[in-house]
Amino acid sequence: MKKDSPLWLVGVFALLTGIASAQGGTGAIAPEKPGPPCAATDPFVIGGLVVDITPKKDGSLDLRSVKNPCISGVALQIHWSDLEPVQGKPDWSKLDELFAAAESSRKWVHLEIFPGFFAPAWALQGVKTEKFAIRYGPGRGTVLSLPMPWNGAYLNRWIAFLKLLSARYGKSPAFRLMAAAGPTSVSVEMTLPNSLEDMKKWRAESFTARKFKEAWQKVLQVCAADFPNQSVSLTVGNALNINDQGKIHPGEGVRTRQAIIDYAMSLLGRRLVLQNSDLHAGPLNQQPTTSFVMSYSGRVITGLEARCAAELGTCSSAMGAEGDPPRALRKSIDKGMAPNNAGRHVNYLEIHEGDVLADEMQLVLRYGASLFARK
To answer: How many CB atoms lie within 10 A of CB 27?
Structure first.
């Protein structure tokens, strides 16, 4: 072949291009290497990004987000009254559906079942209750009956339900985390209604820090015994500023909270998970409890739940970037993944369902999942 032949020139170009490519040069575009899987944690191990789901208005579950490859786990938030409307006859259909989806998608499960305001009517029969307004979340401002957190009949009925739950799902490989609850109100957080008017009601009902701590000890003992294959999450919030003598005392809530955490650590050891549910990067209403939980990273498993879905109305402002949901979510993820003084970060972040389903959030989710990748 003549050197001035077009075919000869093409051959030389192909050869030089191949050499440049092999040596990492820029003479050709090398095929893109496949990246790591989006979900950065091992299946069924507590870690990574977790999607928070709740039943829709018709009571059904939208489980599309469970299949998202950037998601490692799924946290179901559901009312006790939705699971056991009739005493001793639970309706397991929603949980069966959840566990089937989680196991087939190889995702771990965190169950967050809300008693308190959302206990079934039968569980409050003969139980001392008081009227309080819901302080936050769906139904905020609605006045409902709340059982006294230490009431024996109420707690025993809740504990009986937990035993049924354990018998049904305790051996599921996907079931990794059970939220401790019972002496609670609107969620699994240990917080109770605490306005000035609320405090008058609690004192009239003979609330004491001792009663509250003993109620939590009872629930934690049951969780430790009935869920031996799971870790147990304690969602941290300040307790009431009422001391053992029933008197209002500044700082008592923090001391009570610490006493409950110390007891949980001594009982559960490495099976204890501390969580806070108010992660956001917005400038308003920053709660010190978020950084408090982060300080425990490395000593126990820790997790944070986003305050709200950045995609939800004006919540992008609360999450840190008004009108820009992806940026708001990323800023909140960065805040939640900041290392503590020991250089450790939380094990998982719970992201609300709306943000996991939104197309514009997928790059942010991939970014968030990458932060959990093992070095």
So the answer is: 13
CA–CA dist 271, 97 (Å, integer)? 26
pLDDT in tens, 126-142: 999 999 999 888 888 99
For the chain, the domain total comes to 2
What CATH number is associated with residue 263? 3.20.20.80
d(CA 331, CA 245): 44
Give residue 40's pLDDT.
Answer: 60
Mean pLDDT is lowest, of 17-21, 79-83, 108-112, for: 17-21
DSSP string across 313-360: TTHHHHHTSTT-HHHHHHHHHHHHT---TTS---SEEEEEHHHHH-GG
Mean pLDDT of the chain: 90
**What's phi and psi for 329, nearest 5 deg?**
-65, -45
Q: Which helix (H) or strand (E) holds 78?
A: strand 73-79
Residue 277 confidence (pLDDT):
95
Distances (CA, A) of 44 to 102, 181, 229, 300: 9, 23, 12, 18
Residue 306 · residue 315 · CB < 8 Å: no
Q: Residue 83's pLDDT is what?
A: 98
Helices (H), 63-180: 80-83, 93-105, 152-169
Question: What's the domain range around 313?
Answer: 45-370
DSSP state of 189: B
Mean pLDDT of 55-79: 96
Same domain, 76 and 208: yes
What are the tens digits of pLDDT across the range 5-46? 444 433 433 333 333 333 333 333 233 344 456 766 778 899
Pair 125, 21 in one domain: no
- Spatial neighbors of 367 by CB under 8 A, at least 6 apart, are 330, 333
Strand partners for 242: 248
Residues 225 and 199: beta-carbon distance below 8 Å:
no
